[in-house]
Write a sequence for this structure.
């Protein structure tokens, strides 16, 4: 038989790069530490100019919203000086239907909760034509803006919402493009 | 590569392998279901998703739309067989469904392909699976809209069953590959799938406690005959209105659904013992399962 399947390691790795987005004690959602001192999250998580980020080590930092796209449901925040590692994005379009995925976030206020599943499909779910990574994986309010990662811990998408039992994540290619476009 | 990555690759490879034989079936308004190329030119799907009586449009994994003909149905296990000329679309690799065990990781596929995963949670312990009825696979996974009729796949990408959300309100189920083979073989042998027929109308009935104890019956309910069609197999066997059917062959009958599930197509022509209660006394009737007269 093959090697031992270790999901605990993967969970710990993802917790390191996942932040809690709060404001005045209210949990707004999750966020992801992005290379070069940024945090990405969903636009619907940050509806104000500044928010608090709670890091994995418990530190609270104030972060400014640098860019926000309601259409893409993405937002970019400045988060300098955390000293923490940032997430490793997967190659865009590397996602295979059936492959294992894991989500980390703060669903219903449960800090750093892990849920696992597989990629159900990639593409639009309605006439809008907007592509999603659809995952057979449980999400709840508080997961928004958190990472969806492959079995190697590389980020394949940003969890955005649930459609019944189906998780919908913004594909990594869109996140990368949004960050690129926002930094000009 | 760690164990999790290799499991992940295996699952994705299983979806790819099984997905080559998967069709989208436009057999009902709005929501297409899924079908599997089971034998050359024969696609199986869930019967409840095929409203059309004769022709249905199906789309192959290559995106080609084809016209398929409804070749036979077995509503007792929710299976329909479509005949289609589909050169270039491979036939699914099936595995021995008897080897499936509770706890095995399985994938459910929809056309696309799309996939969900979970485990087999029990085998044949449902109410539809007693005695001679088909042993269904109960699944702990999500069948997303349109997944009915699609393949249940093992981690090697082999098809072990056909999924259906239509057979039970409470469970997601799969018809094991062995039962699908039985129906398809019957179709190839006879050129059609016969509908087994007794010629009775029944209603559920509760068995009085004293009667249960006196006759040592462990079931609480059975069915009572409220109509016997003249000239039917039931009439020929001497069944009368008011008879309470408690068993058919080895299968206990606790409600009309059990009766339907027991009357599989391959039992047409078989002589089975009906255990009935008449005037509170047990009686055995020998009945030869007939074929439902066809319409028109």
């Amino acid at each position: 038989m093959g090697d031992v399947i270790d999901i605990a390691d993967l969970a710990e790795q993802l917790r390191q790069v996942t932040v809690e987005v709060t404001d005045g004690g209210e949990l707004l959602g999750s966020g992801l530490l992005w290379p070069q001192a940024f945090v990405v999250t969903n636009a619907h998580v940050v509806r104000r100019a500044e928010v608090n980020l709670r890091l994995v080590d418990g530190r609270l930092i104030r972060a400014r919203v640098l860019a926000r796209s309601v259409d893409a449901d993405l937002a970019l925040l400045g988060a300098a000086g955390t000293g923490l590692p940032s997430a490793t994005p997967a190659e865009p379009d590397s996602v295979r239907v059936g492959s294992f995925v894991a989500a980390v976030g703060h669903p219903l206020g449960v800090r750093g909760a892990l849920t696992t599943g597989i990629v159900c499909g990639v593409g639009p779910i309605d006439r809008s034509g907007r592509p999603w990574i659809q995952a057979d994986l449980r999400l709840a309010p508080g997961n928004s803006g958190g990472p969806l990662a492959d079995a190697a811990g590389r980020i394949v998408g940003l969890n955005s919402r649930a459609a019944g039992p189906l998780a919908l994540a913004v594909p990594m290619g869109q996140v990368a493009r949004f960050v690129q476009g926002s930094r000009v | 590569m760690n164990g999790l990555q290799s499991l992940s690759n295996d699952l994705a490879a299983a979806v790819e392998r099984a997905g080559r034989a998967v069709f989208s079936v436009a057999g009902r308004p709005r929501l297409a279901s899924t079908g599997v190329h089971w034998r050359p030119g024969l696609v199986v799907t869930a019967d409840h998703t095929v409203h059309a009586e004769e022709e249905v449009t199906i789309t192959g994994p290559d995106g080609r739309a084809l016209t398929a003909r409804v070749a036979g149905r077995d509503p007792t296990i929710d299976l329909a067989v479509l005949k289609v000329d589909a050169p270039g679309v491979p036939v699914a690799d099936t595995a021995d469904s008897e080897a499936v065990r509770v706890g095995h990781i399985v994938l459910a596929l929809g056309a696309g392909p799309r996939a969900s995963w979970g485990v087999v949670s029990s085998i044949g312990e449902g109410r539809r699976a007693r005695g001679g009825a088909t042993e269904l696979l109960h699944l702990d996974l999500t069948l997303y809209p349109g997944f009915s009729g699609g393949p249940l796949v093992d981690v090697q990408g082999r098809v072990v069953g056909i999924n259906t959300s239509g057979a039970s309100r409470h469970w997601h189920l799969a018809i094991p590959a062995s039962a699908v083979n039985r129906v398809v073989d019957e179709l190839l042998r006879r050129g059609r799938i016969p509908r087994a027929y007794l010629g009775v109308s029944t209603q559920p009935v509760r068995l009085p406690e004293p009667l249960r104890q006196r006759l040592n019956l462990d079931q609480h309910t059975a069915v009572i005959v409220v109509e016997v069609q003249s000239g039917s197999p039931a009439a020929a066997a001497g069944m009368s209105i008011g008879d309470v059917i408690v068993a058919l062959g080895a299968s206990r009958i606790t409600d009309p659904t059990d009766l339907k599930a027991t009357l599989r197509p391959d039992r047409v022509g078989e002589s089975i013992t009906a255990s009935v209660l008449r005037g509170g006394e047990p009686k055995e009737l020998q009945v030869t399962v007939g074929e439902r007269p066809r319409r028109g």
The first strand of chain A starts at residue 18 and ends at 23.
